[in-house]
Amino acid sequence: MMGRGSGIASTIIDGFVWFGGALLIFSLLIGQSLLFFAAAFLLVLGVYPRLYLNYIVQHFGLLNDKEKLRLSQGEKGRLHLVFENSSRLPIVNAELFFSLDKNVTVLNIPRRPYALHLFMPPKQTTEVTLEIEAVARGVVKMKELKVVVHDPLHLASITLSTGFVKKEIVVYPKSQAVTGLDQLILPIEGDQTHQHSLYEDRTSPVGTRSYVPTDPIKNVHWKASARTGQLQTKIFDKTMGMIWTFVIFLDMYGKKGQKERLEEELSRVTAICQIAQKQGVDFELYVNTRTVGQGMFMKLPPGHGSIQLVKAMEFLAFINTNQLKTPPPYIIRDINQEMRQKRLIIMMDHTNQALTSEMRQKWRKKGHRVFTLEAEGILSPIGIRRERYVE
């Protein structure tokens, strides 16, 4: 069932009732049968639309089944609306109206606000298929859905509406290239054996071992080799267990250009998340926006694999610069409490606060690998000499 947005709307049928009633009385007074039948006809025209519409309303409804459509920008998909007419009469003249945010467009309906004619046979359901194209990142919910039902002669109408449609479209951010990814990419393990770890932090040697011909010459520990009289190779700290932590700090007051910069950053975070998924690396996301009833900030707990990637894409799609902001210390405190193992932290800081800069240095001193994602899409490490990479 759908709620009534308004009562039966018509001035014509009210006029038919009043004029027909007066003509009926007059025909009885003067004994004119033709006037009597004309009056009866006018009364029928005045009464039947109300009876028809009230009957239809009791037997018409939206089958509001939950449906979520996931798309990347530029992709197309289908959303379905199913209406039921359980009455014994057809719905000949009805119009469907609804609105969607500009993050998506409906290809098979030419203009906004979207409107579509409905015809529904008795005792049947009718499915409306919407051809959706994703335009921009975001989470889109259908709103302001209403159906205007007219009687067959179009003399009167009634508006039915529903306040909550269980249809949602999630538009993922696009994936955009990041410069300096060689600092993160871990080789995928194959059938050939290697004398060095596939997952290691080259900035953190923790010991030496005997050199073998397959070791790269740059990994030779020359001091240890001179001391032992044999070539020694550096052993690096393993990074296989590192969690990749993405941290986004938005400016509390929404400074100019933040929205455009955020879109670029989220597209690059998408690319890095896809790499983490391929490598089987656990990753998590933080952003200092919040919604009512969802805590002080948004957080995606650590996880890996395809399911985690889908969660991450939905997480990124939901970020909105218009949401309430939380000061960075709340997120920093949570990250510090969770740092039971080494992390690879990638930060995007729109606040330029001294606190966040100091925290990056502290994390680095504690053995975590810390990077900043620059506006140009360059991944820059903290704590060692920064280099600008050329694609």
Describe this structure in words.
By secondary structure, the protein is α+β, with helices and mostly antiparallel strands. It has three domains: 8-57, no CATH class; 60-172, Sandwich (Immunoglobulin-like), CATH 2.60.40; 243-381, von Willebrand factor, type A domain (Rossmann fold, 3-Layer(aba) Sandwich), CATH 3.40.50. It is built from seven helices and 22 strands. It has helices at residues 12-30, 33-57, 222-228, 258-279, 305-318, 328-338, 354-365, and strands at residues 3-4, 60-62, 67-72, 76-85, 91-99, 104-106, 114-120, 124-134, 138-141, 143-150, 157-162, 167-172, 200-210, 232-238, 243-249, 283-287, 289-290, 298-303, 324-325, 343-349, 369-373, 379-381. The strands form six sheets. A six-stranded mixed beta sheet has the order 18-16-15-20-21-22, sandwiched between helices. A five-stranded antiparallel beta sheet has the order 1-11-10-5-7, with helices on one face. β21 (369-373) and β22 (379-381) form a beta hairpin. The model is unreliable at 187-199 and 384-391 (pLDDT under 50).
